[in-house]
Every structure is written in structure tokens, then in C-alpha cells.
Design goal:
561 residues, alpha/beta, seven-stranded mixed beta sheet, elongated
RNA sequence: UCCCCGAUGGUGUAAUGGCAGCACAGAGGAUUUUGAUUCCUUUAGUUGGAGUUCGAGUCUCUAUCGGGGAACCA
């Protein structure tokens, strides 16, 4: 698992350093335990992929295990639909949590008992301050808060009320359980935070059996401790919560059961140019039907990227490439696209397609004669094999592959010049047939009958190679071309009131038709394809139409100038 | 306002106190039955100031800039 040569080109980010330091201090590899803790309130996106590639990746790399734990402590926000979607996305990315599928709600009883313990030890109390009073008593940064009038409520009384809270005797908001820490602490999170609130809501797993629910700060660290997590990795905004994370573990009896005390470490979340990762805003795009659904191929969600044709390997490579740091940055989408192209280039099947057809008649080819030629499926991978491609008297080529008056360095077809039809014959343009308006109707060409396969018998060099589709065999398909969802590069700084939709790219989705070689009838959804000289595509997995292809990413084309 | 965290080419990152390296993007070139790929070359960097040290991107102080923090959300 930890082959040295593989580790050499991986950056030694601070999480690796922490783990290696722990290892050197005596932590056993098999005791390393991480967790990925999504809240099932939305679909996973590329930013989550960064997080769970790290969670699962570190465990795998150092010989530990990673748990999947749904952080389902707020019943009003969560939905089972997302539990399934999240599992599917992680599985698709190739990670396996084996039988370690956990839920924070699995621990409700245990957590309740730890809360009782805190009350009994005079480290928690029942408070009846309203949310407004609560806020007022907490104070503001720079000014200490003041003690709640209930801070010294007798332990027995708090205990009694808490038990009755659980029994459902009170309305929502009537009481709250607070940890007794320090109302003067400069870190506001330590000013007696709420740890249990009443919510008469149905929970996705526990149904109606609970009406009090633990808060994140209380539930998360103890859940980690219960599961034997050693490295609890989360994003930077939880940095100020870390003292609380330690406080609950160190002030409950769970500390005595631990072989290794869990530690929280924070890293920067992903910001990607020309896209946006806010769950709330993505949800807005779905609700307002600006996109089809969460898995719209333009979405930065994993399901969207999957449908668009991204490969899990490309996403994993990207996550390794961007590294892990403790400072915010804005990663260019070009890096993600590079990782995609690099992977696709290795695996995509090459296929011929014409988007903007120009008819070519081969004057020295017999009418009705069809030659089935061998075509290589992937020059980067011999094991991908070959296929047969038909050639006949009438073919289509790309309009841009012909120029009547070519510039200097143009090496495709023009009157009187030769070009190679890929896998087929050397083609020479002898005449141009025009429409009444002067536009080109079709080309009359001849082929070198001795050049089957593309090589000239006399060894003459043919610089240009173009692709083609046989007219009688061509398949018609709809192709959807994608661009960035947003035109603005940096949407991460957008405030809530600023309207991110102002930056929606009107050209993020365009549709066109293409003529394809017949073998594409057998294309499978999500199978990476390269339509030569154009881009990478996949057959859409959701469209009911016969053939709809999504463009994954464009090729780099240096002949644009 | 107070507390916490951070700052390395255009971008993303690396460097037990010891030659600032890698990748993306850009530029140039070679090979090519995809103007792709591949290969080679190249442009460009330690936020400012002070200090410790034989030696500082790294340690200290300070300034500046950026991020986070005042849900009964996670």
C-alpha cells in the first residue's frame, strides 16, 4: 500500500506530516482511523471529493481504515435521498467503507448518557434563555459575555428537566442544555455553547423516538471517539471549534476508554474558478430549473461530472495535484481539465465524427462498393484493439478541413492538394462544385487506389490527416457541448446578497448535430470516447433519445491562430 | 472592536536552518496516420521592515494584506 516510489511524487502535505509524526511516536498503522462525515442534506460535489479523497486516501496510504459516517443530527434538514446519492458517489470514486457505514444517530443513546454525565459533574446546565437573550448574554468579540441566570441551577434540577425534555414534555425552544465552560473566553464558541435542543421533528433514521437532538460540537467529537477515530480532518472554518472538540472528549468518561485520543486537523476547502460550491446556491440552481437536476452535466456535483464523462481517476489525480494546505486559494479550472484530458487520453476510444459536413464524391470509386477498413481504437493503448470503418463513394468531411484559398501553413485539403483520410486512402481534390450563391456544394475528389490504409506506395509524405464518415453509413446524433457554468472567475468571494446568477454563462450548454461512424451505435453510457479532431465525449446516461452525447472536455488545438 | 489562522512565479503547491523544486497556464522547437498525445527548451517566485545565525522561505519581533469566528446549522 505504501510503495515508496509512488509516494515520491506526492506532496508531503501537513496531514501526511502529522500522521508520520504520530507513527514515529508509536501510533500503530492499523490503529489509524479517519472518517468522512457528510450531512445528508445535498449532493456531493468536487469539493467533497477533495475531502474524502483525503480521508480515505490517508487511511489507505498508511494502512488504516476510513469510516463513512452520516452526520444526521439535524432532522429538519436531512433526507434519505441524499444518503443513497452520497453512497453512490463515493462508491463510484472507488472508495470502500466496507461494513463501516455509521450514523451519528446510532449514538443518540450514548450521547444522551454523556450529556447526563456532564450535568451530574456540574459541567452542563439547563438554560431557558430565549435565543435573543442567549445571544445578548454571550457578548461580542472583544467583550466578555455574562453568566446565564440559570448557570448555577442545581444539578438535580437540570437533570430532571433534561430527562423530561427527552420525554417530550416541553415545546421546542423551551429549554436548552448548555455546557458550562467560560463566558469570558475570547473564543465565543466556548461561552457555554448549547449542546442539546428540543426538536419535535421526524428523523430520517430514528423517526419519532427522539425529540431532543445533540448539536454538532457535542456530537461530532464524541462520535469520533466512539468510533476510535485518530485523525478527524475537517475544513478551516472549524478551527475555532477545536477547543470544544477536545473539551467534550476530555470532560466525559469516554477519555478513559480511548487507546488514542482523536485529534481534529483543519485544511482549506476547495475553490475552483468559474464554478461555485455552495450547497445552498447549487440547490437554488436546481429549484429554479436553471439546470436539469443535481446531476446536470454542468454541475460541479460528482453525479453531474459523472454524467458529463469525468473519470474517477481524473478527479482523484486532481485532488492529489491541488495538495492540502491551511490557506485559501483559487484553483484554476484548467488544472482540473488537464487532469481529465490526461486520463482520457489514456483510456478514450477514438471514433470518427463530422459536426459540420461537407460532401465529397470520390469520382474514381465504384458506386455501391464499400470497403471496410481497420481502424485503431486507441493509439495510446494497444489492448483496445481495432474496429472496422466503412468507406464508400460518398463521404462527409469536416467543412473546416477544406479551404479553397488556404493560408501558408494550412495542411489539410484544398483544390489540387492531397490529404490522408484517416485509416483509408490518400485523397486529392480535383474540382469544387458550387451552389448558385457561390458556396461550396460538394467536392469532386479522387483517391490513390494504391494507398489503402493511408500509406503512399511511392513513400511520398502526406502532412495532413483528416477524418471522415461514409454518407450511407453515417449515424445522426445529438451532441451537447458544455462550457463553464459561470463567466466570473472567482465566485468564492461573492457575498450572500450578491446575485451569483448574474454571472451564469449563457453558453454553458449548446446543442448541435453530428454524423458519426456506425460503430458508435454500440457506445455505452459513461464510456470515454474521443471524436477525433474534436473533443472527448460520452453517451448520455439519462437521455431517452436514441443517441445523445455529452462533451466532456475539448482537446487542446494549437491550430487556432 | 477582540480572538484564532494564514501569506512561496500568472495559478496550484514542495523544500531536518544549508543549491528555492514540481505541476498547470504561457512562449519556442522536434516527432506524429488526431494541428491531439509524446519529447525537448524557455519565461516567471519567498508580502515589507527589523532581529537571531557562519547561513533564514523556514526561527523571533513588527507592519501590511487575506481568511475564519458572535445558529437552539453542519
Amino acid at each position: 500500500m505504501t510503495s515508496e516510489p509512488e509516494n515520491q511524487n506526492k506532496s508531503k502535505h501537513f496531514v501526511r506530516q502529522i500522521i508520520e509524526e504520530d507513527l514515529s511516536k508509536g501510533l500503530q498503522r492499523e490503529d489509524i482511523r479517519t472518517r468522512f462525515p457528510p450531512e445528508p442534506n445535498g449532493c456531493l460535489h468536487i469539493g467533497h471529493a477533495k475531502a474524502f479523497c483525503l480521508d480515505f486516501g490517508m487511511a489507505l496510504e498508511y494502512g488504516g481504515k476510513c469510516n463513512l459516517r452520516f452526520d444526521d443530527t439535524n432532522p429538519t434538514k436531512e433526507d434519505n435521498r441524499f444518503v443513497e446519492a452520497i453512497k453512490e458517489d463515493i462508491r463510484w470514486m472507488g472508495f470502500d467503507w466496507e461494513n463501516r457505514e455509521f450514523y451519528a444517530s446510532d449514538y443518540f443513546e450514548k450521547l444522551y448518557n454523556y450529556a447526563l454525565e456532564l450535568i451530574e459533574n456540574n459541567k452542563a446546565y439547563i438554560c431557558t434563555l430565549s435565543p435573543e437573550e442567549f445571544k445578548e448574554y454571550r457578548g461580542i468579540p472583544g467583550r466578555p459575555g455574562k453568566d446565564s441566570p440559570h448557570r448555577n441551577r442545581p444539578m438535580a434540577e437540570s437533570l430532571d428537566i433534561f430527562k423530561r425534555m427527552r420525554n417530550g414534555e416541553f415545546a421546542e425552544g423551551a429549554y436548552v442544555l448548555r455546557a458550562k465552560i467560560d463566558m469570558a473566553n475570547p473564543n465565543l464558541h466556548l461561552r457555554d455553547p448549547a449542546i442539546y435542543r428540543i426538536k419535535h421533528a421526524e428523523h430520517i433514521r430514528t423517526g419519532k423516538s427522539w425529540c431532543i437532538y445533540p448539536m454538532y460540537d457535542f456530537a461530532h467529537c464524541l462520535s469520533d471517539a466512539i468510533e476510535g477515530i485518530t485523525h478527524s480532518l475537517c475544513t478551516l472554518e472549524f478551527e475555532v471549534h477545536r477547543p470544544l472538540y477536545d473539551w467534550f472528549i476530555e470532560n466525559t468518561s469516554i477519555i478513559k476508554t480511548l487507546k488514542v485520543q482523536p485529534r481534529q486537523n483543519e485544511f482549506a476547502r476547495l475553490n475552483l474558478s468559474h464554478t461555485m460550491m455552495s450547497k445552498r446556491k447549487l440547490q437554488q440552481l436546481v429549484e429554479e430549473k436553471i439546470v436539469e437536476d443535481w446531476d446536470d452535466p454542468r454541475m460541479p456535483t460528482l453525479s453531474g461530472m459523472r454524467r458529463r464523462g469525468y473519470t474517477p481517476q481524473a478527479i482523484k489525480n486532481f485532488c492529489e495535484e491541488i495538495g492540502i494546505t491551511k490557506f485559501n486559494s483559487l484553483t484554476q479550472i484548467a488544472l482540473l481539465e488537464h487532469c481529465l484530458r490526461a486520463d482520457l487520453n489514456k483510456v478514450a476510444l477514438r471514433r470518427m465524427a463530422v459536426f459540420d459536413p461537407l460532401l465529397v464524391e470520390i469520382t474514381n470509386w465504384e458506386d455501391g462498393l464499400v470497403d471496410w477498413l481497420d481502424a485503431i481504437n486507441n493509439p495510446e493503448d494497444e489492448s483496445a484493439g481495432t474496429r472496422k470503418v466503412p468507406f464508400s463513394k460518398h463521404i462527409y468531411i469536416e467543412k473546416s478541413d477544406f479551404m479553397e484559398n488556404p493560408p501558408k501553413k494550412y495542411f489539410r485539403l484544398s483544390p489540387g492538394t492531397e490529404v490522408r483520410l484517416r485509416y483509408a486512402y490518400i485523397l486529392k481534390c480535383v474540382d469544387v462544385v458550387k451552389n448558385a450563391d457561390g458556396s461550396v456544394e460538394k467536392l469532386l475528389c479522387t483517391i490513390d487506389t494504391e494507398s489503402r490504409g493511408g500509406n503512399a506506395p511511392d513513400g511520398r509524405k502526406i502532412k495532413g490527416t483528416i477524418h471522415f464518415v461514409s454518407k450511407d453509413h453515417a449515424l445522426k446524433a445529438k451532441v451537447r457541448l458544455f462550457d463553464n457554468l459561470f463567466t466570473k472567475e472567482d465566485l468564492s468571494n461573492l457575498g450572500d446578497d450578491e446575485n451569483f446568477k448574474d454571472y451564469l454563462n449563457p453558453n454553458s450548454l449548446t446543442e448541435t448535430e453530428a454524423l458519426l461512424e456506425p460503430s458508435l451505435k454500440e457506445a455505452k453510457p459513461q464510456e470515454p470516447l474521443q471524436f477525433e479532431r474534436n473533443a472527448y465525449f460520452t453517451l448520455d446516461s439519462k437521455s431517452s433519445d436514441a443517441l445523445v452525447f455529452n462533451r466532456t472536455v475539448t482537446l487542446k488545438e494549437s491550430f487556432v491562430k
